[in-house]
Write a structure and sequence with these properties.
With 146 residues, this protein is mainly α. The protein has one domain. The protein is built from seven helices and no strands. It has helices spanning 3-6, 9-25, 30-61, 72-94, 99-115, 123-127, 130-144. Helix 2 runs antiparallel to helix 5 (99-115). It is extended, with a radius of gyration of 20 Å. The model has no long low-confidence stretch (mean pLDDT 80).
Length: 146
């Protein structure tokens, strides 16, 4: 399974640009704009590496043949280096305004989760046996907070 089959890129790009636009508007100068774009690009690369690693691990665990052998340690170190270096550069050059690229990074995590293609499930299939536990938990919470 390729990356474009796992991620709905229309949703991913729409929400990514919707988050990136206000972040760029809050920047004061071109240096900050460049740093936000560098952080954004490093997050995109990091997330594509992560999704590739996860798909490779799932295929390998299920016994299906994989296209190429990847080194998960090198990919993980590359991901950590990308994110750490881009955020570190932002801290040094933006100072207190580093919250802007940090919020872009955190929001991209949620956007990736939201845009993953999953098998469609009904609520009853999703909750299954957990339904009784959830209902009992809700009843317990309601009883204790009266």
């Amino acid at each position: 399974m390729r990356l474009n089959e796992k991620i709905n890129f229309k949703i991913y790009l729409f929400y990514s640009i919707a988050i990136l636009t206000p972040a760029l508007i809050f920047c004061h100068n071109l240096v900050e704009v460049g740093l936000v774009l560098v952080c954004y690009c490093s997050v995109i690369i990091s997330q594509s590496l992560m999704v590739g690693q996860m798909m490779h691990a799932i295929l390998k665990a299920s016994g299906q043949p994989t296209e190429e052998e990847q080194s998960p340690i090198i990919d993980t170190l590359l991901r950590i280096f990308l994110i750490a270096s881009s955020l570190s550069l932002s801290v040094h050059l933006m100072g207190n305004r580093v919250i802007i690229p940090l919020l872009v990074y955190v929001s991209q995590i949620f956007i990736l989760n939201f845009s993953l293609n999953r098998e469609k499930q009904t609520w009853s299939e999703f909750f299954g046996e957990r339904k009784n536990y959830i209902m009992n938990f809700i009843k317990y919470i309601l009883r204790t907070h009266k």
